[in-house]
Write a structure and sequence with these properties.
globular; six-stranded mixed sheet; 6 helices; alpha/beta
Length: 243
């Protein structure tokens, strides 16, 4: 008799780790690195920590994009700095919530969009690591949150303005809440308004400018024209897309 052997189940975390391991191939000793935030970026930071500990990477300096990444990296012995000390970064590695065919991104569902954008804009190269579930035909197409960071002062005023801005698209704008039911507060002491699109954003470049032009908006989760490469882990293996 022949017994059928079931294939091992590949989890989303397995895919994230595959993409993270591939991204670390871009890292060379002596680099200043932007360290992303989120579940996929956490695998990258773990891998960097082990390579530094083993001596395979030396003279690395990390610039974290959130307090939780800072804490993780520090616990792993990764030397850390800031944009003030290192305004030019060799390479940033981070995850994304959505990736479209042009390698434009939605980021920030983890709440760190402002610091992520600052660090990644200062980077010579920005490598994005995702699993295949993050691929969309158009930004906003997942139906999940596209975050906008706003100052706490009169946040409801800006929630209304953001709703009106995309009224024709039928967008729902909601204040992000923490687990305790209180408003979620970012590392920068701001609130987040999450936009939920019924259909992909028609013109991401226009949306970028329109959202950013609102007084009281600090930044938003549209990361356009920033990615150097996107590493995608899927059931068929790992692929790399570049512009």
């Amino acid at each position: 008799s022949i017994k059928a052997l079931s294939a091992p189940v590949v989890t989303q975390d397995d895919l994230k780790k595959l993409a993270a391991d591939k991204a670390v191939d871009y890292v060379k000793s002596g680099m200043v690195l932007g360290l992303g935030t989120g579940s996929t970026a956490a695998f990258v930071v773990d891998k960097l920590g082990s390579l530094i500990k083993s001596g395979q990477l030396t003279d690395i300096v990390g610039v974290p994009t959130s307090k939780r990444t800072q804490e993780q990296a520090a616990a792993l012995g990764i030397p850390l700095s800031t944009l003030d000390e290192h305004p030019r970064i060799d390479l940033a590695i981070d995850g994304a919530d959505e990736v479209d065919p042009y390698l434009d991104l939605v980021k920030g569902r983890g709440g760190a969009l402002l610091r992520e954008k600052m660090v990644e804009a200062a980077s010579e190269k920005f490598v994005v690591v995702v699993d295949e579930s993050k691929l969309v035909a158009g930004l906003g197409g997942s139906g999940l949150a596209m975050p906008v960071e706003v100052v706490q002062f009169c946040w409801k005023y800006n929630l209304t303005r953001l709703s009106e801005l995309f009224e024709e698209e039928g967008v729902a704008a909601k204040l992000r809440l923490a687990a305790d039911g209180k408003p979620y507060v970012t590392d920068n002491s701001n609130f987040i308004i999450d936009l939920y699109f019924n259909t992909p954003i028609k013109d991401s470049s226009a949306a970028d400018l329109e959202i950013a032009s609102l007084e009281g908006v600090v930044d938003h989760g549209l990361f356009l024209g920033m990615a150097t490469a996107v590493i995608i882990a899927g059931s068929d293996g790992v692929s790399v897309k570049t512009k």
